[in-house]
Amino acid sequence: MDPIIILQAGVASGTVLLFATIGEIFAERSGVLNLGVEGMMLIGAMTAFSITVSTGNGWLGLLLAMIAAGLLALLHGLVTIHFQADQVVSGLALTFLGTGLSLVFGEGLNKAGAISLLPKFTVPLLSAIPFLGPILFTDQSVLVYIGYAILPLVWFYINRTRPGLHLRAVGENPTAADAMGINVYRLRYFYVFVGGMLAGLAGGTISLAISPGWFSELTTSGQGWIAVGLVIFAQWDPWRAAFGSYAFGALRRVILDIQGPQVLFGFPNPFFYNPYWGFFMQMLPYAFTIVVLLLGSREALRKRLGAPAALGLPYIRGERGV
Amino acid sequence: MAPATSTRNYQLPFTVRVERRLNVPGWLSPAVSLGAIVVALLLGAVVLALVGGNPWAAYAHIGKAAFGDIGVFSDTLVKATPLMLTGLACAVAFRMKLWNIGAEGQFFVGALCSSAVILSGLVPKDAPRVVAIPVMTVAGVIGGALWGFVPGFLKAKLKVNEIITTLMMNYIAIALVNFFVFAVWSEGGFQMSAMFQKAAWLPRLADYAKQYPIFRGLTTHAGLIIAAIAAVIVWYILYRSLWGYEIRLIGDNPRAAEYAGINITRNTVLVMMTSGALAGLGGMSEIAGVVHRLQTNISPGYGFTGIIIAWLAKLNPIVVIPVSVLFGGLILAGREIQPAGVPRLIQGIILFMLIASEVLLRYQIRIERVGK
Hints:
CATH topology of chain B: ABC transporter involved in vitamin B12 uptake, BtuC
Number of domains of chain A: 1
CATH architecture of chain B: Orthogonal Bundle
CATH class of chain A: Mainly Alpha
Shape of chain B: globular
Oligomer: heterodimer
Helix content of chain A: 55-70%
Distance between the termini of chain B: 24 Å
Order of helices and strands of chain A: HHHHEHEHHHHHHEEH
CATH topology of chain A: ABC transporter involved in vitamin B12 uptake, BtuC
Largest sheet of chain B: 3 strands, antiparallel
Radius of gyration of chain B: 23 Å
């Protein structure tokens, strides 16, 4: 129960949620709700692991995982953007499809054995920072550092660049964006694809770095859905998404670690390898998601914040929009 | 197609127009659904062939192992029973555009509560069936309704997204059932409770084999009747009662419903509870009709398949019955097909094709000669 170790591991496992949440923020900011994150993450995890097993190249595995999940997301894009299907149902269908595909193509992968994981390293100077150094910059996977790197970039892109402005315009008022000469359809396809790629990256991060291997549906165990919940908590803002993701990562780690020591803060540990308490510990991330969602919703009501105005609505050119 | 009216001229002697349909002929909707299923099965065959399977053998096997003779058909009906109830649960909620993705969890809690009244001894061991079964039913319904109340209340009062909450409640429900199975009612450390007394079993067709020899070995149980009655009641509520009118109006146009003075907050909670109650009844029927004890893994995803069933049935409670039988067959026969993900995959493709095909109901393609 060393807090440094818990936070260090929490940041690592939070990176999975970070990628998935950022991806969903892109899709939702463009006005497309994609509930298929869980399915896309599974496809990503399965593809990354399978390719790495057969080629030995983790980077190739990661790349193909992103492409596979991105293509799956484009299916959702086609059905919701051009066919104007209900985004909720299509997202659910994507989850079923992604889960089914990854189970079928991942058959037997659980016996594939060990693979060489993506590298871990310590950043020379930064790791010397007291407290933060050992947590953030010591012996982390390269993917964790990629997470740190994209975070400010994503924020800058969405809030301070012209393409980012177009992205927000398409999600808030597609009719006006269209009148300004922005191609609403093309942008929505693009960001749905980006969202899928990041979900695939999140899946690959699990199977190649955080908890390596392929354990069918248990590989993600609902983290895709937690990511969808975190987007609402984050109010579609990447920094808040990062805070939520890392906090959840740490929570998952606490749940594992609290069952280890015999003595906790000088008292006998009630959770010490107690399998019965373990079931309630398993519930915590999910219960916590509900609480976080509750807090996010209350804050949104109070501050009159809201989702992108056109979220979930198909854009039909020439008809009255929002 | 996205542009409402687009004319594309490919320098051909005709133009292809995509335009909005003004009226949908009655035969079109079922025909499109059927077409979507056929295309989905073909796509599923392609995937099966890709992973080295023989799709036609697999489909033939599903057909034979699910509908081949009265014995397997009876087993198909057993699988269809919980699907009808979870399908109804989803249909009620979806009709009001409430996205209850939590039928799976409500099913588990229903199973837990109906087991609890037996295993805790609340229903005495020597109580007759006419006491045990109704008490179990009420317990299952209350359990499911409670599990639906939480997300319904959060949605109604605090605008908390019900998709995420119902889904999270699934994971919590399954962990809760695991806790009770392992920690409270475990039989010798195994992942199951002790067997219920016979009075807590729903009667099976096989129980009447003495009078009607044709029923020998048939496992179809009275849960099927419960499910069919539930379907009729739900149909009556939705399409013949004032409450159902309110539900449908909120689903189609919440703003109009609000102006008409319909209490959306109250209906959100009530519909979520009704939906949960139906799924919980499904859990009770599965426990009392099939497993006869509480154990882990009582559902191969009945709650999730219910979503597809509700959508395929176009949210019509009566149509839920035959659609459930089809999916019951798929689940029953799919268990023996390798790789294990095939039934899930086919379900996913069917749902995708189904919603994609709905564009054909909204738009029509017209081919016209140029110069006409």
